[in-house]
Design a protein that fits this description.
Length: 116
């Protein structure tokens, strides 16, 4: 049974920082590409950042330079360091594990609210 559990969300003021964590179990973690995906109310799901098993990263243009994705293949963890947060970053953030052609696994999400 595969489980992805996100944590670290919360309420933060504009300009602040948060670090999201995703704990994975039930998978050969290092062979999966991991991503953070967010969805705001009334908006489409957006890929925020991804990292391959080998550590190659990719970012949405809206977060490049502010967010950093990383992973620890020993602890089976993936992180999203979010700096200089903006109100438009407000969303539910989901952890996602992909190893084609297997359908992706998803966590339950963690809410991030950026507001003064």
């Amino acid at each position: 049974q595969v489980h992805l559990v996100e944590s670290g969300g919360g309420l933060v003021q504009p300009g602040g920082s948060l670090r999201l964590s995703c704990a994975a179990s039930g998978v050969t973690f290092g062979s999966y590409d991991m991503s953070w995906v967010r969805q705001a109310p009334g908006k489409q799901r957006e890929l925020v950042a991804s990292i391959s098993g080998g550590g190659f990263t990719n970012y949405a243009g809206s977060v490049k330079g502010r967010f950093t994705i990383s992973r620890d293949n020993v602890k089976n963890m993936v992180y999203l360091q979010m700096n200089s947060l903006k109100p438009e970053d407000t969303a539910t953030y989901y952890c996602n594990a992909v190893k084609l052609p297997i359908p992706p696994y998803w966590g339950q999400g963690t809410q991030v609210t950026v507001s003064s």
